[in-house]
UniProtKB/TrEMBL annotation:
Residues annotated as the enzyme's active site: 249
Domain Aldehyde dehydrogenase: start-end pairs: 16-471
Similarity comment: family membership: Belongs to the aldehyde dehydrogenase family.
Naturally occurring in which organism (per UniProt): Cryobacterium cryoconiti
Top-level lineage group: Bacteria
Entries under PANTHER family matching the protein: ALDEHYDE DEHYDROGENASE-RELATED
GO-annotated molecular function: oxidoreductase activity, acting on the aldehyde or oxo group of donors, NAD or NADP as acceptor
Protein name per the record: Aldehyde dehydrogenase family protein
Entry-linked Pfam families: Aldedh
Keywords from the UniProt entry: Oxidoreductase
Amino acid sequence: MATPTLKNFVNGRFIDPAGTELLDIVDPTTGNLVARAPVSTVADVDAAMTAAKTAFRTWGRTTPSERQRALLRLADAIDAESDAIVEAQHRNTGQPRATIAADEVAAGADQLRFFAGAARLLEGKSAGEYLPGMTSWVRREPIGVVGQVTPWNFPFLMAIWKIGPALAAGNTLVLKPSDTTPESTLELARISQGILPDGVMNIVLGNGGTGAAIVEHPVPGLVSITGSVRAGMAVAAGAAKTLKRAHLELGGKAPALVFAGVDVAKTAAAIADFSFYNAGQDCTAITRVLVHESIHDEFVDAFVAEARSRTTGSGDDTDNYFGPLNNVNHFGDVVRKVAALPDHAVIATGGHQVGTAGFFFEPTVVTQVRQTDAIVQEETFGPVITVQSFASEEEAVTLANDVNYALASSVWTRDHATAMRVSRDLDFGAVWINTHILLTAEMPHGGFKQSGYGKDLSMYGVEDYTRIKHVMSSLE
């Protein structure tokens, strides 16, 4: 069978790009080629931006109820097309199909329904007379065209996080999916035909150069990326050239702080779930476990046993707790980081490739690390978890905050006062208590420091895709 060549989606149609360069799309469970994708050029990006700009003239003036109806129809269509989306994404990510179906497709449709409702709930200050004889009010308006870049770890769900608030607020968009995982986003484009007006949502495929062309294009008023810190810095620098706004959801190095008095076995099992989910390829995943010294050894024993029970590497994805690392370059990066561990670090379990086909990596637990070690300070984005001990609450918070990332964290304790103090003192955009990683459309998601700025999900996320205008009128 011939390898398919993917197309861009512009102005409501799938079209061949102007560029002729192609990228290989590889199934990470086997390493086999499954498709080729174009590297869209500046001309391709310009065509998509023109379509989005033209469509905004109409979409930007639709009523909130009209946008709500379109998004609700799209959510229903996503549910109906779940199997096609799952298969498209599984070819590109190797994630277990059940995981994609539940945690991305069903969750994405649900979150889109939230954004549909949010379209009708945008608020501003009430009108009032703040100067004699003058009435002032605030208009909350769509920005116009927005440019967006999504990552490879949750390709479909992250596309929903981008398009949902942008479209609910009345914007049109040009989105570039990751160069390794474009197919589920193209399924979303296909499903949108006949539901979203032509040009409202445009998808261009390509590499980092294509993303830079989106960021630096003069049309978008905002650019949004979910990705690495390095990519986020590039987007912020590119956006600065035309003083457009940037919305950045970047990396993480999430700590789990485990205090004395917890049920060690139960806590170790839960933390293993949240650490190794999606092969650790989640910016909110637990990557550092900080354990009170009185239960450290007991916890390590229980956590290692839990790690060994999380299977991967099977050709039958129903047998896998998590799938492969996404691509050969990322796989090589994780392997190098584990190989570069300092002599004092101890690999309590894992540390190796699973099998000979694809990019599967063992669940890995590393103990005896120091706060200054690269494995503690730098994002691994794989199934590699470090464990450290602490003697006091103050030390635990200090160790947790002593990284450049500030996206997610969790506190594990039976003491209410400890949970309240530590959740206050942790310098992260999200703090979970006796759980981790769970998200809901109604609550904001986003970090501090080098984890970026701006919020996804919730009304805060929708407001990020709007601008504020003051209007004053004479009463005479």
